[in-house]
Design brief:
about 230 residues, alpha+beta, Bacterial polysaccharide co-polymerase-like, 5 strands, elongated
Length: about 230
């Protein structure tokens, strides 16, 4: 074990410059080509979900199940808003207004959640003006077409209302986002440099220690070397 550690140490001391070369190249290229990630704009839409309770047994009973149903509907609309069919409907609405935005881009930009009877939709987009337009189309489409995707909601009409106007907010790129790419490149360069060091030590034809001769099967008189 001690012999192996010593050989690794010798290899690092002798060929360290081979390991530095790829790291230096990557660092130089990173400094020359690095661009700060673009600012992303996010729009957060809150939809209140609910409908007038039907009169059946009692006011309290009807009110309770109306609230319970609104939670299920909020959850269902949250699942609907991330589908390709919904994104296509939004894309078609935007196209009618003269904006050509692919449905795939819209679908990948939407993340949803729900908290009881409130559905929350997050839209992230690189352009502030487009973000506002897309968010408005998303809100209108969800309110208008949302119930039509569920047969059990037929005839009820709109059950979601947009609680706040779409307002794009800039999101500065996180430190992790800024450093992740360069850090990965440096780690790869370090691995390549380490590999070069050990390849060089393996193919090195120079005999530097008596241990190297022993490995080659040559008997060495230890006393004669003193």
């Amino acid at each position: 074990m001690i012999v192996h550690i010593r050989r690794v140490k010798d290899a690092l001391e002798r060929w360290w410059w081979l390991g530095v070369i790829p790291i230096g190249v990557v660092l130089a290229m990173t400094l020359l080509t690095y661009r700060k990630p673009a600012t992303v704009y996010q729009v957060v839409l809150h939809f209140t979900v609910g409908g007038a309770p039907a009169q059946t047994i009692s006011a309290d009973y009807d009110r309770y199940y109306a609230w319970l149903a609104s939670e299920y509907v909020a959850n269902g609309l949250a699942d609907l808003a991330v589908t390709g069919a919904f994104a296509q409907a939004v894309s078609d609405r935007l196209a009618a207004d003269g904006m050509d935005i692919p449905s795939g881009a819209i679908q990948s930009a939407i993340v949803t959640d729900n908290a009881q009877s409130v559905m929350i939709l997050y839209l992230s987009w690189p352009d502030a003006e487009q973000a506002g337009s897309i968010a408005s189309a998303v809100g209108e489409t969800l309110v208008e077409l949302g119930p039509t995707y569920y047969p059990q909601m037929g005839g009820i009409g709109p059950v979601a209302q947009l609680a706040d106007p779409p307002t794009p907010t800039p999101l500065a790129p996180s430190l992790r986002t800024q450093l992740l790419g360069p850090a990965v490149r440096v780690l790869i360069a370090t691995a390549i440099g380490t590999g070069l060091i050990f390849v060089a030590s393996i193919i090195d034809p120079v005999i530097r220690r008596t241990d190297d001769l022993a490995d080659c099967g040559v008997a060495v008189d230890q006393l004669a070397t003193r």
